[in-house]
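Our consortium's second objective concerns turning raw sequence data into structural hypotheses that experimental partners can test. To show how far this objective has progressed, the report includes one record in full. It was chosen at random from the queue rather than selected for favorable results. The single chain below, 484 residues long, was entered without modification.
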Amino acid sequence: MIRHRYIDRICGAAVLLALALTALLFFGQALGLRPASSAPGYAARLFDSGRVHTIDLRVEDWRGFVAQATEEVYVPCTAVIDGEEFYQVGLRAKGNNSLRLTEEYGLSRYSLKLEFDQYVDGGNYYGLDKLSLDASFQDNSYLKTYLVYDMMAFMEVPTPLCSYAWVTVNGQPWGLFLAIEEPEEAFARRNFGPDYGQLYKPDYRSLNAENADVALQYTGDDPAGYPNIFHNAKFDLDMADRRRLIGALQVLSTGENLETAVNVDEVLRYFTVQVFSMNWDSYLGHTGHNYFLYEEDGVLSILPWDYNLAFGTYALGMTDPIRDPNVLINWPVNTPARGEVMLNRPLYHNLMKDSSCFAQYHDYFDQLLSQYWESGRGELVLRQTQAMIAPYVEADPTAFCSYADHLLAVDTLLEVCLLRTESIRGQLEGRYPITLAQQAEHPGIGVDASAIDLRALGDFDDLETAKERQDEALSLQIYIEENK
């Protein structure tokens, strides 16, 4: 038998290398190394946010698709993403009130959903199972969702990836949309690793119902009492999954030992951005929805979703919506909703009963203000993104607003954020009221936001004026289809 004279050294080195690789496999994240699953292929492709991407939707009958959009039925399409073809992709319209109002106003620009494994088992876009194309409904700036997601990511909240995409239909321009990573398997794997937990999108069936489960209230141990959570699970559930979540809600309801049932630090960071952005179409608002709920090992996190009505522009379902910018921009951060709502939102209310949580919440506000807005970072993000998308907004054939209105909306959004920063800084320093009770005692104290017209960010009037523009774009698409 032939034996290499250094065979013992070679074998020893191989053993050491194997041990080192094993250590990296098990302890790499603790050492600051990112697992491969945290940087999937799609992240550097479609979700490279440094440029505007292209998506061509090849659909056999676009007129029929638009006519039946509110039924939210999938149709097959070929999606050509940055020149690459993906066949048999499921396409449908998406939305809640935006879907209903788009139809009600006779419009044709719907937000869309692309599901790569709807017709093809295992179908994906470089590891991504589903994405949304957000139409910027009632967002003349095209920037509300993008900006809030950027703030959430800055505060290290697990956040969907997003980027802008110029969407065409059968080769004809349809408009500028925001492509968003849908929180499902790929999102969970990217953020929480291969052994991720359960993901839910709690949502109400009727605003007239109690919807206690959407508010994350504990109502007993029977899983049947939580239909708006369990019927909206993103992954298959078993009884153990249900019991873990209900157990976490029970702990949350007591207000004690919350760290055993809530990812407290992450939830505080989420609420910091949520409250800054004055988003009441959310867990802290009238509806209590528009969030994702993540559970792992009996511990809950709340994750961001849907910000087209942020920055004080939510009025749907409210009998007497607040329009005064002085009221909205100075809204106190310690009571981000009125008492009747707060008492029914335990994930915020019960955390804030703990003085240490309140102190940490304030510290996170200081971080967001000083490092994102007062440093100029937020303005730079907004202005650079505006410059990137400007030619596409100007050419958008189905836009909800004129290009001049878009420019006004961007300027308004920036001013709103800067005034909101000034107001919250004053609240943290004790110069302005930080609760609704203090505001009642000292009315009119805060930043002067009277020059702001929040309707510039997007309002119902824009929907009426957009109809002619969108009808023309749809008619052109139909004409081309009929004369192929």
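The partners drew two points from this record. Residues 403-428 form the longest helix (26 residues). Residues 57 and 169 are 5 Å apart (CA to CA). Both points have been shared with the crystallography group to help prioritize constructs.
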